[in-house]
Design a protein that fits this description.
This protein has one domain (2-21, 48-241). It has helices at residues 2-24, 47-75, 78-91, 93-102, 106-121, 130-133, 143-149, 168-180, 182-189, 193-209, 212-221, 225-241; strands at residues 157-160, 164-167. It is mainly alpha-helical.
Length: 262
């Protein structure tokens, strides 16, 4: 049970780190973490304990997750890694479909269902992302987003052990998604817990492997990595809640090398 939770935690941490790659491409204002922008301020009354947990998570990434991702990249060919990534993402499709329906987003549910059926049938069980090639958009939805659509506020910012950046609403949403995960339900109902744990661990390593250099650059160029990640998480969640239709991200965080806006 603990190992299963750990695998899901590593996946969440790697996902947040992966967002850093997208966010850094839009950074234009060195010297400001982004927290000064009123529109993106984050309620962080637990900053001191949050920073302590953040440091522990950083140690876990440096000592375990990142080295594992480097080995993964070194020994697994690109086409195989792509197939693994596609297959794991396809397993999450039922959750995307359910959350779209709970949000009343019929178009999103239709797209998610179309992707799942297309990739499962034509993509050999999800190993190939045929749906993207067919023009069906990919828009993951989680229960934290669903709660936001229902009007639930963020709540205080939290850094959870291994889970990484979150807030009170998204922590509750994560718990619901974990309990409702069809793969987890199947694994625990049929005594295939090993398969569930393997999916979580491989997912974390796969996602972390996609941003090895970018996260290193983010760490090196951020004057306050904690504040940078906090700001990025806030912006990522707002964009996700708005189905990526939110205004362009403001100028953030502090990087010594500037990159053009996309």
């Amino acid at each position: 049970m603990k190992l299963a939770s750990l695998s899901r935690s590593l996946l969440r941490s790697a996902t947040v780190l992966a967002f850093a790659l997208t966010a850094t491409a839009c950074a234009t204002n060195p010297g400001d973490s982004g927290a000064s922008d009123a529109a993106y301020q984050v309620s962080d009354p637990l900053e001191i304990p949050n920073r302590f947990v953040f440091a522990a998570n950083e140690a876990a990434d440096v000592l375990v997750i990142r080295p594992a991702a480097e080995v993964y990249v070194g020994i697994v060919p690109d086409p195989v890694r792509d197939a693994i990534h596609n297959f794991i993402d396809n397993l999450m499709a039922p959750l995307y479909i359910a959350n779209n329906l709970l949000q009343g987003n019929v178009e999103g549910a239709t797209n998610a269902t179309g992707r799942f059926m297309t990739n499962t049938i034509l993509g050999v069980g999800g190993l190939a992302d045929v749906a993207t090639q067919a023009g069906i958009p990919h828009a993951p939805e989680d229960f934290g987003q669903t709660l936001a659509v229902w009007g639930v506020g963020d709540g205080p910012y939290l850094v959870l052990p291994l889970l990484g950046p979150s807030n009170l609403r998204d922590t509750a949403g994560y718990a619901v998604d974990t309990v409702g995960d069809p793969v987890r339900i199947w694994a625990y109902g049929t005594d295939h817990k090993g398969a569930y744990m393997t999916r979580g661990i491989v997912s974390a390593i796969d996602r972390r492997s996609e941003v090895l250099k970018e996260v290193d650059d983010l760490r090196r160029n951020s004057l306050d990595f904690y504040a940078t990640v906090r700001s990025l998480y806030q912006q990522q969640r707002r964009a996700a809640i708005n189905n990526n239709k939110a205004p362009a991200t403001p100028e953030f965080p502090d990087f010594s090398t500037q990159q053009p806006k996309p």
